[in-house]
Amino acid sequence: MSKVNLYINTKHYKDQNPNNLVINIPAGSIKCNPKTQYIEINIVSWIMKNDFYNTQASNNKFEIIKKDLEDVVISSEIFQITPGNYNVYSMKDELNRLLDGLVIVSYNKTLNTYTYTRSYENANEKLYIKSITANDFLGYDNNNEILLDNDASSTNVLNMAGDELIVLELQNINTKQPIYDNLFTYGSGNVVSSKVVGFLSIDQPSYHLLQYRNDDGGDSFSYIINESEVNELHLTIKNQDKEIIDVSDYFLSLQFIIQEKHSSTMLIILKSIDSTLKQILMMFGDLWKIYSKK
Asked: Which residues contact 26 (CB under 8 A, 6 or more apart)?
């Protein structure tokens, strides 16, 4: 068994965004004999500063739709909240700016919800709001058309924290064991093949560190890969809905282990022997209890 450590600091890639990064590795430095060996990849640590906006291009879109009384669409317009860090009051002001002449947004402090009131009258027209990706900030689930009839209060409490997870994908690496997720299925629950290899919870205040450290040597983010040589890594960073997000620079530590194929077989044999010995010892222990009572 041999190991190759790779330390990546994204700030040195000025011509690329840290959320979509291609790392070139010296040719031949990470390879194995495919007949007798395989490569295992481990995420040793992943550290990132929480200095990105809670509202950005991945979670800021919604739509205003006008329909006639027969539910035929008259017009529709997509709005984008300006990226930035908002609280419930500054977000209310931003929504009122965007929807001037259409909707008035007010804040219910007790329920932590918004109320949407049409700011014009037209008895022959119905007005709808539809969140595309801005569900946390509007208080409505994505892809649902909400009729703004009189005063429409948001059905969900507001969440100004924005995204909950930062997800790491390896686009050009194929793992031997399948990986699945349902992060991009918008409520359908469908599980699909995945390139996700790790994630960070956004559980620290702004400008604090988000980090994963494999201090105990566990295998939570450890994968056997099909490739016998790795000369390039394509890293993408997404949110919990698998939408590419703008993140700050990060530090990533990976370890590639060249394993002998027979080692896994030997491990199974050793575990089997260990289990058999335990059963024999338990059997002798039971016999000793029986004879010791005589």
From this structure: 231
Across 247-264, b (16+ Cβ under 10 Å) vs e yields beebbbbbbbbbbeeeee
**For residues 206 and 117, which has the higher predicted lDDT (pLDDT)?**
117
Helix (H, G, I), strand (E, B), or coil: what is residue 2?
Answer: strand
Handedness of CA 29, 30, 35, 36 (dihedral sign): positive
278 CB-near residues (< 8 Å, 6+ apart):
none
CATH of domain 2-52+163-261: 2.60.120.1100
Task: Report the half-sphere exposure of 287 (CA within 13 A, side-chain side).
Answer: 6
Map out the domains of the chain as residue ranges.
2-52+163-261, 61-153
Find the helix or strand (DSSP H, E) in which 253 lies.
strand 250-260
pTM of the model: 0.71
Mapped onto helix, strand or coil, the DSSP state of residue 284 is: helix
C-beta of residue 58 within 8 angstroms of C-beta of residue 163 = yes
Task: Flag whether pLDDT at 18 surpasses 80.
Answer: yes
> How far apart, in whole angstroms, are the C-alpha atoms of residue 195 and residue 20?
14
With contact defined as beta carbons under 8 Å apart, do 138 and 128 qualify? no
Q: What is the mean pLDDT of residues 112-126?
A: 93
Report the C-alpha gap between 153 and 140 in whole angstroms: 9
The SS3 assignment for 176 reads: coil
The one-letter code for the residue type at 269 is I
Helix ranges (H only) for 135-201 are 135-138
Name the nearest CA neighbour of 57 among 243, 242, 249: 243
